[in-house]
Structures are given as structure tokens and as C-alpha cells.
């Protein structure tokens, strides 16, 4: 007996968790298996391929890990392509939920849609005709605002880390590999780790300077992350992700690094000289020394 929920679940935020809590609760009551059935890539990036590339809150692996941490027994991924997008709700139910995954109960969110043709209003009716029970979960709100992946993306794009983290239920993070830079930071006493993301479509927060938790070489450290174009030292307009790791001096080029955002400290700005930049970085460091990363 399988109790499942389907969807992209980008971010696995507090709204998604309301669905997952209901899912795991029903599975426990029935002695069944709880399952998340997700899609990859994001439907919008397939159906609007030439016009729009949606930035993601979570990579596929992050969604998988978060699902298991929330008590899900099984995480399945369906490749979302244009052919799959043409399936009707009933075709999806019969071909996937019943034949492939043996689902007996489907838990859906308040605005959940399934199948081509936007016949989501008939989900319960179609499910019943296929022998599947449906349980619909209400919306999750904070004040008058409904929590959604889109709302969280907007927070991050404005640099509102506090709100994004609150609605996610955890700290937003970026994961990548340390790549070589111009090593200019070393000349002013602030060497930085330059990050190249593993997932190119992962959303990068707004330009600015952030207090972050850094995980590298098996350790956890405080860090000051600058996301931006480095206007004091470069005319290049491409954005970079550079992190000065406090109390750390190791060669980590080519190694795995994850930064989790705790607080936005200030805007990025152009300084009159490297010395002015160094003095500001000293102030940033002093501000972060007593902050908590746990």
C-alpha cells in the first residue's frame, strides 16, 4: 500500500511540509509506504524553453535528501518532457500512479494540478474512477501571505534572507566547487573561496554581502560572502560568489563547498581604494565574529 504526493516540490518549504506531514501520517496509520513522486526538469523550463529559465530553490539531490529527512520512505523522479506533458490526468493516474507505483492514496495540496488540459478540478473524481483515494490539504499561510516557491524566490531576489529562511524552514544554501580567482583578496588579508555552482539553474540571492555558514573539508566555519561584480577591483559585469572564511587558511581549490545564508550584512558598493575596501571588510568581520552559525 503506497501513499504518495506528486509535484515539483521546489524548496520543500513549509507549505510542502504540510502535505508531507499528512502523507507520512496516513502512511503510518495504514502501515503503508510514503512516497514523493517528483519531476525533473522543472515543467516551466521544458514548456517555455526558449523564453524563460526558472531558477531553482533546490537541486534534485537536495530535494531527495530533504524528503528523506522529513520521514519519506521513497523518492521517485519522473523525467518531464514534452511528450509526458501531453498526458491527461487519467492517463497519468493509470500509467504511473497505479501501474508503476501502485498508489492507493494520493495527498494533494490546495492548488495542485495534474495532467494536460488543466482538469485539476476533477482530480478527486478521476482518482476515484481509478480506485485511488485523494486527501486534499489546505493552504499554509503566514499572516495573510500564502507560502509558495515563487514567493520565496522573490524574497531571495530581493536579498531578504530572513524571510526566505523562515518560509523554507531551513537556511537557504548554495553548493559547488572552489575555483581559482585572481587572488587579489590575499593581498589585503582577505583571501576568498570562489564558488562555481554544481547546478547552473540554482537561484543565486541578490547582489550584496552576507553572513554565511561555510562547510568545507569536513569542517564548519563562519564566512562573509560577497555576491556581485566586485566594482572596486573589476569592470567585469558578471556576478561572482566569493566567500572569505573566518579563521581558515587552507588550499581548497577543486574541493566541495557549501554556504548557508544567515543574514544580509549590506549592499555591494564601489570603494575609492583597496584600503577603503579592506577597512570595510574588517568591519564586516568584526560584525560576524560573535554571530551564531548553529
Provide a concise account of the structure shown.
Helices cover 31% and strands 28% of the residues. The protein has 10 helices and 13 strands.
Can you describe this structure?
This protein has helices at residues 14-30, 43-47, 60-69, 82-85, 89-98, 123-129, 149-158, 161-168, 184-187, 274-289, and strands at 2-6, 33-40, 74-79, 103-108, 133-136, 141-142, 145-146, 173-179, 193-197, 208-216, 219-228, 240-245, 256-266. The strands form three sheets. The chain has a six-stranded antiparallel beta barrel. It is α/β, with parallel strands linked by helices and 294 residues long. The protein has ten helices and 13 strands.
Topology readout:
Blueprint: E1 2-6, H1 14-30, E2 33-40, H2 43-47, H3 60-69, E3 74-79, H4 82-85, H5 89-98, E4 103-108, H6 123-129, E5 133-136, E6 141-142, E7 145-146, H7 149-158, H8 161-168, E8 173-179, H9 184-187, E9 193-197, E10 208-216, E11 219-228, E12 240-245, E13 256-266, H10 274-289
Parallel strand pairs: 1-2, 1-4, 2-3, 4-5
Antiparallel strand pairs: 6-7, 8-9, 8-13, 9-12, 10-11, 10-13, 11-12
SSE order: EHEHHEHHEHEEEHHEHEEEEEH
What is the distance, rounded to the nearest whole angstrom, between the alpha carbons of the first and last residues?
A: 39 Å
* Main beta-sheet annotation: 6 strands, antiparallel, barrel
Helix-strand category: alpha/beta
Provide the gyration radius in Å. Answer: 22 Å
Strand content: 25-35%
Which strand order spans the largest sheet, edge to edge or round the barrel?
8-9-12-11-10-13
Q: How would you sum up the global shape?
A: elongated
- Tally the helices: 10
